[in-house]
Write a structure and sequence with these properties.
Blueprint lengths: L6 H27 L18 H17 L3 H18 L1
Helix pairs in contact: 2-3
Amino acid sequence: MGELISFKDYKKKRQEQEFDSLSVAVQNLIDDLGIEHTPEPYYPEREKNITLGLCVDSLLFCSDALLELGYFEHSNLVDNLIVQISKERV
């Protein structure tokens, strides 16, 4: 009688093997091309004419996005910051 094989385990093992072989292939390619991989952060160029209104608009966008993602408490924190800025601005 044959051995019982779990398809889920087989698929996971197969994916791990494929990932490992791809990882080795990419590393060999990097070595062959002489690429030295040094991660560098990307900072987009900042807007030159930043105003408080632009900052508040950006915070409003962040608050709305957090709310849509279900981060209600975080959205409230951003809203409270907007209120504080608006009070100081007046």
